[in-house]
Amino acid sequence: MAKQSLLEGKRILVTGAARGLGRDFAQAVAEAGAAVVMADILSDLVQQEAEKLAENNLVVYSVTIDLSQKQSIQQAVQQTVALLGGLDGLINCAALATGVGGVDMMAYDETLWDRVMNINVKGTWLVSQACVPHLKASGQGKIINIASDTALWGAPNLMAYVASKGAIISMTRSMASELGADNICVNTISPGLTLVEATTYVPQSRHDLYVNGRAIQRQQLPQDINGTAIYLLSDLSSFVTGQNILVNGGFVFN
């Protein structure tokens, strides 16, 4: 089966899609045949990115979403379903990653901690909650939650982010247990440090740590993750649920 047809007829929502991993997920999923809605709080940017993809004869739309506001989430999902005529899959990629580290646990700001948890964990739950009725109606719904391999090796000076991604992995398992009866598969992808806008602030020493510690010793790119996402959204993975799939070149193992 050709990659271009793996998601033919699928309707997919991608959050955090204005840039970085989310933007690349949206492009890859659309190129695999799906109709895609790109959602982000950066409304102008996500609209521009969606229009660029649509110019290449891909079926791509955009909506605005604020993961800190339940009403915004519900409205974005409603708009998505109206645009696509239903929903078959969701990639929860939106998260706070830039500017959330660099200090140890004793000096970490409590307000920032709460904001990271509110966006990364609660926001992922609320988006999933809003999508579940539509995914159930599709007959074979798929949810992919994006975590991080930092949750497995405990990256220092990044505690709120690491804790939030550990929560994503655990929440995925609970969601999978609950939603299996509705024929909805829920899985996690945990990338390693990837070259995107959100990681430009990361010190070179941390990049070197990753590259030198990987079985495949090179920088990780967004396209390294796309194939796993397409697989998990496709019918090929219809008996795969509750899993955390590491895509990090062998830096750390499950």
Automatic annotation (TrEMBL):
Keywords: Oxidoreductase. It comes from the Bacteria. InterPro entries: NAD(P)-bd_dom_sf, Sc_DH/Rdtase_CS, SDR_fam. The keyword Chloroplast does not apply. Pfam families: adh_short_C2. The keyword Oxidoreductase applies. One of its GO terms (molecular function) is oxidoreductase activity. Belongs to the short-chain dehydrogenases/reductases (SDR) family. This is SDR family oxidoreductase. It comes from Acinetobacter sichuanensis.
